[in-house]
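Working notes for the structural subgroup meeting. M.R. asked for a predicted model of this chain before we commit to crystallization trials. I am recording the input and output together here so anyone reviewing the notebook later can reproduce the run.

Input as submitted:
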Amino acid sequence: KEFRSWYRKIPPPQLKSVFEGLWQTSYFTHSELIEMAADTLRVMDRAVDVEGGEVPETENKIMLMPGFPCPLCRFPTYSWVEDMGTKVEPYVLDFIRENHPGWDVDFGACDRCVEVYKLRADGVM
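Returned structure, recorded in token form:
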């Protein structure tokens, strides 16, 4: 139950495989723990085949997990704006890209940053 609350965005069948993979590991090195703490995809890489489970495809997938830092303001956020390509106006996305070269809509952003950048793009701030 606690594990499920930490990784709510991982679908249940995949979560079962991830949990079993972690549980069956005899030990972790310090660097492995640091990697998993910093990147949920490294946690998902630990998935194993189990009955009723599903091994997730983690290649090039970005997960916006609660508590992870927003790529724009770097503050932890629990309120992500997902599917920014469809939910945020293109001129706002262009304004964000001007201020954050290398940023992509797949990286997401917190709702506060999206609101601020919309106001800035509109010339209000």
